[in-house]
Amino acid sequence: PAHRPLYGKHILITAGPTHEPIDPVRYIANRSSGRQGFAIAGWAAALGARVTLVAGPVALSTPTGVERIDVETAREMQQAVRDALPADVAVMVAAVADWRVDHAADSKMKKQNGQVPALQLTENPDILASLSADDRRPGLVIGFAAETDNVIAYAQDKRKRKGADWIVANDVSGDVMGGARNSVHIITAGGVESWEDLPKGEVAKRLVERIADELV
Ligand code: C5P
Prior knowledge:
single chain, alpha/beta, 8-stranded mixed sheet, two-stranded antiparallel ribbon, 14 strands, about 30% strand, binds cytidine-5'-monophosphate
């Protein structure tokens, strides 16, 4: 029906940051709040989809009608995404940490007389790129790109490099990370759709409506 255009569709969404342990009490993280991804999940459910939301550590309540899977690290997020397949649409909004500590300590690292630990980092899996290359790739794969400079050009490059169908590019030179508003460009194979500065809830609603139009 017209008011539930995503009925029968499974939409898989990642949101929030990841935490990468250094030792049992410390971690590497970023400033993602998860608000944009949670808002998308809420609207997808409201428009009738079955929604799986794979969430990093955030302080947000689960939107109505959404199945939420909490994870901490990028590798846990990747596994949860695989476990949630098949899906019709994937919207990868999470700010996945690019690096993790290669060998996290099993016990708390102690401060010792002026010696500073050297953290050896290793690259995390790219969840979006690997999903795009998966045998069970969803028919519509959407990534996000937070950039401060050359927003559209970098996002167009990212769309191709990661094998996504769309990239939602946002200019984070202001206070988007953790903030309430977002200014986005939708990069598709066909071109660029630039939206005016909007509350994150409105970006989410329009994006989910745009997804529903695409699936018709
Ligand atoms: O960090 P980057 O700008 O490359 O992120 C672009 C897109 O890729 C986002 O949709 C993000 O969720 C996704 N990503 C991912 N796994 C990573 C890094 C980014 O799924 N390790």
